[in-house]
Amino acid sequence: MKTRFAVFAAGLLLLSSIAVFAHHAFQAEYDATKPVKVTGTVKKVECMNPHIWFYVDVKDESGKVTAWGFSGGPGMLMRRGITRDVPKVGDVIKVEGFRAKDGSNNASGGNVTLADGCKAFAGAAEDVVPQ
User: Fold this and answer.
1) Has this prediction a pTM greater than 0.85?
2) Element (H, E) at 77
3) 3-state secondary structure 19-33
């Protein structure tokens, strides 16, 4: 009986440690010293656990379009009344976050201002808040 309990406890501990490492920390992916502020048109929205990804096409002064991908926490957004249908493809939104450490055009979702002016924090509870 003691052996079964020990095996069960060890298995439970192993599974819980895997869950902790499966979700990355903000500091592991994003650079808090590289803030990003963009305004653009929502191209695509993907809801997949544990994140929501939304892609924004951003035009610069010369008209060149650059695609940006932003990660957010779906649970955080849902608690604020923002469902998977918001933002909608075609909406113009403003996003403030922090650039990915790998230098790609990916960033933390951070603060999002939707087309109707509604503002929301799209990050996870442990994420850094853009100022």
Assistant:
1) no
2) helix 74-79
3) HHHHCCCHHHHEEEE
Residue of higher predicted confidence among 72 and 9: 72
Q: Which residue has the tokens 């020990």?
A: 6
Tens of pLDDT, residues 85-118: 678 899 999 999 999 999 999 998 888 898 888 8
Helices and strands counted in the chain (H then E): 3, 7
Token duo for residue 110: 């951070």
Q: Contact 98/30 with Cβ under 8 angstroms? A: yes
Contacts of 56 (CB under 8 A, 6+ apart): 38, 40, 41, 42, 43, 67, 68, 69, 70, 93, 95
**How is residue 73 written in tokens?**
């926490």
